[in-house]
Amino acid sequence: MPLVVVVGLGWGDEGKGKVVDCLSDGAAIVARFSGGANAGHTVLIGDRKLVLHQLPTGLLREGVTGVIGAGCVIDPSALREEASILEAEGAEAWRRLRVSPHAHLVHPCYRLEEKADEEARGAAAIGTTLRGIGPAYVHKFSRTGLRVEDALDHRRFRDVSLAMAERSGTFQGLHEEIERFVEDSCAVALAADDISSTILTALRDGKRVIAEGAQGTLLDPDSGTYPYVTSGSCVSGAACVSLGIGPSRVDEVVGVVKAYATRVGSGPFPTELDGPVADYIRRRGNEYGATTGRSRRCGWFDGALAAYASRLNGCDWLALTLLDVLGGLDSLKVSTGYQGPSPAFPVLGEGLSVLRPLYEDLPGWEGEIAGARGWDALPEAAQCYVLRIGELSGAPVRLVSTGPERSEVIWRSP
Ligand code: IMP
Description:
Layout: E1 3-8, H1 16-24, E2 29-32, E3 41-45, E4 48-52, E5 65-68, E6 73-74, H2 76-88, E7 97-99, E8 104-105, H3 108-121, H4 133-141, H5 154-168, H6 171-189, H7 195-204, E9 209-212, H8 236-243, E10 252-258, E11 261-263, H9 276-284, E12 297-299, E13 301-302, H10 303-313, E14 317-321, E15 331-338, E16 357-363, H11 380-393, E17 397-401, E18 409-411
Parallel strand pairs: 1-9, 1-10, 2-5, 2-9, 5-7, 6-8, 10-14, 13-15, 14-17
Antiparallel strand pairs: 3-4, 11-12, 15-16, 17-18
Helix pairs in contact: 2-6, 3-4, 5-6
The protein binds inosinic acid.
């Protein structure tokens, strides 16, 4: 049975939570392989809206084991709080959670380090989520970080955690928080497991495993719009590294792409809109950050960036989300590339902000498609729009999400 990797093709917020939730039905394991409390995966079940930041979305399905990979960075106190919210909803989240002993922990002083760093950047600030993500990866790679397995030795872990705060000069303000961090880290350490072996055993037993990405390809530190990116790898290849699985075990890569583009924080965004259309999309798509509540920047679908992201992840097929949001607009635009000669390699740095998109007009459709049951129930203009996105991205769209509800999806056969 397959290992399916799910990744975002944009700047995050593509609706991966809902897609992973759909694919988790019948899966044995859902494993988060990147990011930390910076993510916000929203799933609507009936009238209950659940936003998961660190826990794998699969925990919302009974019987699914949730795994957190070594490539993630864990805020232990926020993780426990999140689990208790799910438990209050009747999901036995903590008992079904397995954590890589090699995942790094987000020490409370990292958030202060990050705040100081963002302030020092002034106008060039990245606009991070201020969850301490960047410093957690900095400490990981400078080999000064704290890992889940370190918290198996309570006394030593407490000493090291306090010393870390002393060194960073943040000890005074953080004493209580650090004591809580130590307790919560020790609780997380009890969920440590050999996740590579757990996943490979499930696959050998014919079970289905979903590797759940966070953020999106354009926020990846290697492949995204550097320096306006996050700090952990979020492309499909990172699933193997984070979960301890060889690339030969991956059966399918699913790219989640939005029917339009959004971005939070700073950085280039060639198809960005300003004015009534952006406001319309923002309002209908509820484009406000699930983690920080920040208003998201909105724009047209960018075919060149989607094709780049799809190629880079090796997408077998695409899940197109938030199509319903575009209903009611007379005409739509999609970018098919940029003006001027094609560069020899994808431009993703500051150079991206001066590129002028080439647009193609497509007809809009009237009315709401949220209740549409099946491909044939979609207006013709909506079908054309979906097919064009698949062509521009270089991978077929197999799943179309037409509303926030779990049931609002349309499957298209190849
Ligand atoms: P960080 O991940 O908090 O360091 O933030 C770095 C950049 O990535 C900022 O522009 C954030 O807004 C963005 N970012 C991080 N996580 C997400 C996410 O889950 N969705 C959308 N943007 C994100």
